[in-house]
Structure formats: structure tokens, C-alpha cells
């Protein structure tokens, strides 16, 4: 395409877009060939306007990049999920171990406290038992062996039975 054709094709497009009027259309210009589709595509490419094929190729490349990026992201997500699951499992095991240790320590403390309380209660019951024995002995009409023997000697002294 020569410079005149390009200039005139530009005039054709700008006349419609910029409102320059229909008086400068290519068919009204001398020594101009009619604008063909391939000339038009060449001018559009030269101007940097994308054609349908360009758009389709770009869309195809974008779809390929999106697909590869999606695959890469999915791999990264899977790797992160795997690491998180591993760390979660490890943390869970550490927590279970810690909780078990705390529960064991707490149970040991509770058992020690209960045993101390039981010993104190047993000691108090022993004192209560001793007090009950003393009170029974004080209130009892039954004489002890020593008291009986003494009483028997006094009776035998005044009333010998033999």
C-alpha cells in the first residue's frame, strides 16, 4: 500500500468519525483505487487497531495463561492445604499431649487433696471414737475388773464365803 492510499484511507475513516463530511470519500478522489478489505485490515493494523483474528489469538493466549495460572494456583493451594493439615495435626497432637499432662497433674493434685482430707477425717473420727469410749466408760454401770476385785476383797473381808 502506498502513502497516498494510506492517507486517503485515513481520510475516509476520519471523515466519518470526525465529521469531516462525505466530500472527501476515496471514490471521489482522483487516482485512487477502491479500498479493499485487505487494505483496510493493513491500515487498521498499522494504526494499532486489533482485528478479529488478533482478538481471537489474544483471547486464546489469555485463556492459555489463565488455564496455566489456574493450575499453578491450584497446585499452590493444594500445597498450602497440605502444609496446614500437617501443622494442624502436629498442633493437635501437641495440644492433646499438653492437655493430657495438665489433666494428669490436676488429677494427681485432686487425689493428693482427697487423700489428705481423708487422713484428716480419719484422724478426727479416731478422736471422736476415743471420746465416745471415754463417755461410755464414765456413764457405764459396769465395773471394771480392777474395781470388781477390790469390791470382792472388801466383801470377803466382812463376809467370808468359805
Task: Report what the structure shows.
- This protein has 162 residues and is mostly helical.
- It folds into 2 domains: 1-49, no CATH class; 52-136.
- Helix content is 79%, strand content 0%.
- It is rod-shaped, with a radius of gyration of 58 Å.
- Mean pLDDT is 82; it is low at 17-22.
- Strand tally is 0
CA distance, first residue to last residue? 169 Å
Structural class: mainly alpha
Percentage of residues in helical conformation: over 70%
Shape: rod-shaped
Give average pLDDT, whole number.
82
Largest sheet: none
Q: What does the radius of gyration come to?
A: 58 Å
Instruction: Work out the strand percent.
Output: under 5%
Number of domains: 2
- The helix tally amounts to 4
Helix and strand sequence: HHHH
Low-confidence stretches: 17-22
Key descriptive features of the protein:
single chain, 2 domains, 4 helices, 162 residues, 0% strand, mainly alpha
